[in-house]
Description:
Blueprint: E1 2-7, E2 12-17, E3 23-31, H1 37-41, E4 49-53, E5 57-58, E6 77-79, E7 82-83, H2 96-102, E8 106-109, H3 113-123, E9 126-131, H4 137-146, H5 156-159, E10 165-167, E11 172-173, E12 178-179, E13 186-192, H6 197-205, E14 208-214, H7 219-227, E15 234-236, H8 247-258, E16 263-266, H9 268-276, E17 282-297, E18 300-311, E19 320-326, E20 332-337, E21 342-345, H10 360-374
Parallel strand pairs: 3-4, 4-6, 5-7, 6-8, 13-14, 13-15, 15-16, 16-21
Antiparallel strand pairs: 1-2, 1-9, 2-8, 3-9, 10-14, 11-12, 17-18, 17-19, 19-20, 20-21
Helix pairs in contact: 7-8, 8-9
Amino acid sequence: MKVSILLENGLFLTAKGFGAEGTAVGEIVFNTSMTGYQEIITDPSYAGQFVVFTASEIGNVGVNQDDMESRGAFLKGVIVRSYNENYSNFRAEKSLSIFLKEHNILGISEIDTRFLTKLIRNEGSQMMIASTEIHNREELQKLLAEAPHISEINYIDEVTTKRPYIHQQGAWDDITLSYKDANCSKKIAVYDFGVKRNILNELTEVGLECEVYPASTPADELIKRYNNGEIVGVFLSNGPGDPLVLNEVKENIQKLMKAKIPMFGICLGHQLLSIAHGYDTFKLKFGHHGGNHPVVQKGSVEITAQNHNYNVPEEIKEVAEVTHINLFDNTIEGVKYKDEPIFSVQHHPEASPGPRESKYIFKEFASMLERVKGD
């Protein structure tokens, strides 16, 4: 199956397709993780994007239900150097190509991903179009020019839960090869902007039952539950897109801040807390996507999992203590707000995929809730 590709900079390429058929427009980014392609593909934060994998072989271990990070896949396409249809893993249930077809996601292979990665690194993330049905450059150019930019689209509405639910699963057990049962003593509310399942798992692992709410849930509803003692705090999840378009969400967070509700944010949640405090985010040249990013905190270095295109500004130091710094480009990775029971991190302490060195952050949230309760 032939796939034609046109990038915003005018580069026209052809490759081989292995997923769904059709035409899709999205933003192209690269991910440097060497393992965990299913977790990456099912991370809702990639909604609206084409992901270039720098790992050269993709598809080797197939796909299984346990490694799903959400209810489906929301990205536009997967771009790989070499795709393997004949998977080999005792946990596999189906091939990646079948999975992509089920979720209407383009799979693109037999292309120089090293070249694409260098291009993105040098020129920055950009929009692109890929099609298995249109191979005329001028027609693709017209469609790409007419399509809305990713920064203009609110993908939160697509990825968030449609109704509240209780998450009842613990962390993964490498010995039993299954998820633990939840064992919780307190309840928190989770704003779902595209939350990964393993974030919820790690929250329950430290004793916090997660009641997950749609992104559009009014803050007054959570404030009422907090004042009644039904929840002890609020978690703000990861998610896709430009945080500056989420005005309603910003206003809800500001109401929660005014009510002095303890909060913890990861990735998009981290960015939204900055915006709610009056410090707008900015877009990175090509973002941070991978499982090998060094972050320094309290004099030690941890290797972290990352997935974001936006960052909080240096000016946030006026209202927050910086707790984590990215050693690749010295951007801010974590903050603790002054005189408020609120902190957040840009990287993903749950990993999945990636190193697990940052899991202590979930315990810090649980400890903070204990301190606030004691006060």
